[in-house]
Design a protein that fits this description.
two-stranded parallel sheet
């Protein structure tokens, strides 16, 4: 499971990278293997004024994980 609070990225049925704007949100107390709070995987994001706290991960990015788009 990736992005316990929010996952943005390319899926197997959507070859186009997604984009999102996250403004003034509270993303807390989520858990995921990668990107406990937010996982941006191959997409793009404008992230400002958010509170990201108390998130947990089994591997990388307890608060946020950002991965580049490939292709």
């Amino acid at each position: 499971l990736s992005g316990g609070g929010l996952y943005v990225g390319m899926g197997s049925t959507n070859p186009t990278a997604a984009s999102v704007t996250l403004l003034n949100n509270v993303i807390t107390n989520n858990r995921a293997y990668l990107g406990g709070g937010i996982n941006i995987d191959g997409g793009s994001a404008l992230i400002a004024g958010n509170t990201v706290a108390g998130n947990q991960t089994g591997r990388h990015g307890a608060g946020m994980m950002l991965a580049p788009a490939y292709g």
